[in-house]
Write a structure and sequence with these properties.
353 residues; 16 helices; 3-stranded antiparallel β-sheet; TIM Barrel; 8-stranded parallel beta barrel
Length: 353
Amino acid sequence: MNCYILSCDSHVERALTHWNKVGKPKMIVAPMVNHSELPFRMLCRKYGAEAAYTPMLHSRIFIESKKYRSQEFTTCQDDRPLLVQFCANDPAILLEAAQTVEPYCDYVDINLGCPRRIARTGNYGAFLMDNLPLVKSLVENLALNLKIPVSCKIRLFPDLPDTINYAKMLQDSGCSLLAVHGRTRLEKDSRKSIANWSAIRAVKEAVRIPVLANGNIRHMDDIDSCLRETGADGLLSAESLLRNPAMFAGFRLAEWVVMGNEEDDGGLYKDGGLDQCDLLVEYLKLCEEYPVPWIMILSHVHNMVGDWFVDCPEIRDELNRKAKANGLTFEFLYGMVHRLREVGSRIPLYVKG
């Protein structure tokens, strides 16, 4: 028992030392399939993100397909701290994939939180919550054989004590950083269910490794509230960053600002001179520097300027026709932005003054 305690203490000490080494990032880009790719990560980093996850990578396909590796995992010197996330259900396959990327990242992350049907079919993500011995073996095998720490991203069990025990098991198995999405496996739609920050606080109080919170982050006020209410060491944002990659720099979409009444907002907010088209142009330039599949670029275009398409449906339809015909080019996209500026409504972002 004493050896176990010493081993646990040593692991926690190493986890905290590494967390300090990477700068204790508070504002982090969450893993998003087809969305948290290198150009988007670099855009978010420019606007305040202090660390980022890659999209979820399928560990078996990653080691079997050179094309998959080259398209789905790209990075650069400034893309740090970086967490590379894998889904897996085989410890040996996961280790082989993880060893391929460990020279290029700061953590290898295990996806234990995806609630989608494809995760059920593939037996990974949140559906591994039904097989805790397998989860334990996935974490232990990485922790024993990698030179960098292991992180895990989880969801809540319906009963809080089960979540607490789960988090402790992950820590004892060698997890050095734990991200907690404050919803259960059944709560897939963030618009219909509010993340449970009090459950995240309970996890934070139960373990000794750094904990990240995930859920209910729309703008800077939410960031401050989340960190205060959960006690977490940092937080992740996903969907909100897709619409507003500058959120971590304090910019917010107009819908989150009381407009036209300085008394209502206390004069705290002002037009920051930045809009979604500005951000899209910056993103496109990064895509030219760091090429990614067009399907990723197209999705970001719709997320960033979808509000503008409401006033310009003909431009949206032309974009979709080009994409369907595999005719997208950067020249066309820059021209599209110019046309949106000419005929569309300017939808500003606001920044705290």
